[in-house]
Amino acid sequence: MTERDDIEALLPWYVTGRLAPAERARVEAYLDAHPDAARGLALAREEAEASIAASDAIAPPDPAALERLMASIASAPQYRRASAAKPGLIERLARWLSSLAPHQLAYAAAGLIALLMLQAVTLGTVFMMPDAVYQTATGPDGGAARSSPAELLIGFAPEATMADVSHFLKENGLTVVDGPRAGLYRVRSESQADAATLADKLKTSPIVASVLPGR
Amino acid sequence: MHHLGRSVAASRRPVQNRFIDARIGYASGTAAGLNRLAVSSRPTVTAGVGDMTSPGDDRVLIERIARGDREALKDIYGRHHMRIYRFLVRMTGNEGMAEDIMNEVFLAAWQGASRYEGRSAPLTWLLSIAHNKAASRMRKRQAATALLDAAADVADLADTPDIVAQKEDKGRLIRQCMDALSSEHRTIVDLVYYQERSVAEAAEILGIPEGTVKTRMFHARKKLSELLAARGVDRGWP
To answer: Cis bond leading into A77, ω under 30°?
Structure first.
């Protein structure tokens, strides 16, 4: 196709005003540069007028057609999409936003930005404070550890007798809750002493071979 | 043209002047625009009548239809049934068939409104349904291949004494030749000039690429020129 053919192909839409701006500009530039192309434009306009006149001349359909349509839909089930019957959160939010006037939309956007900034400041403050150290409940100094009985894993010396062990447990307020596994007993302290202090104390006993944290 | 049933030509009423909005398509505010305004006229023809509804309003109606609102269906029927009906008459060449299909189009809109995704203008959506249903109906009746034998029609018409008088009315002659185009060409001409669909919209309605829309319209116009030439009107194009 030559450039002229390209332009000729666009003229019908140029005449009806349905060309994209870039194509419209292209047509106009061509028409400016080629005055003889105005003939093609006149033909397109002539065709448009004839087409519109031809369609306008078509008599309307039977007025009873609407009645027949309404009668036919009475027995016609509608295809329903779940979202059509009950719009979801995103769709409702989208509808609400689209219903806002431009200035309302601007206020909504400003409010959202302010909310985001407040959130950023709050989070930043919390995490940047020196005392605000994030801890897990199972950490060595966690509140959960302090509020629950200390547990330790204890390995006894091979020469320790059962009587020695029983006496040791009673003396230190310990209860065996599990074991032995791999030679270690899991014991729980009935005192409020923390695990580290208790471990240091138990290590001094001659029948204790090893003490490990239980949690 | 007996196979057109109640044909377009047979039903034609005196043509009314519908150019209530023959606006001028100039690029205002530029030297080029001013030059065009002063030197020549490039009127942009618009159908004007029957297109006073906004796509936004139509979308609201379709949402209501999807919820089972029958009054909304009546409203959208009132807005667009003439355009749909005329498109179908132009495409099928048969008013009875066009009326039946129009009923099917709005019934389909009623049943499938919830499927409308809003990507195109509601009128384009309705025209797309209309085109699909008409094409299907015409295929079933083998009407799609029973296109008007334009050359034969022209030869017949050229032999009648009426033609001499008709030549005095060029517009009427063009309309007659448009009726003599194939269904495919009548359809694209109607979509572009009467329905005022853009290239993209016509492509969506017809289910063809945009490039094919342009070439199909180009060939339809070329065929129109040939038909007119056969009847003694040399348009000087192509």
So the answer is: no
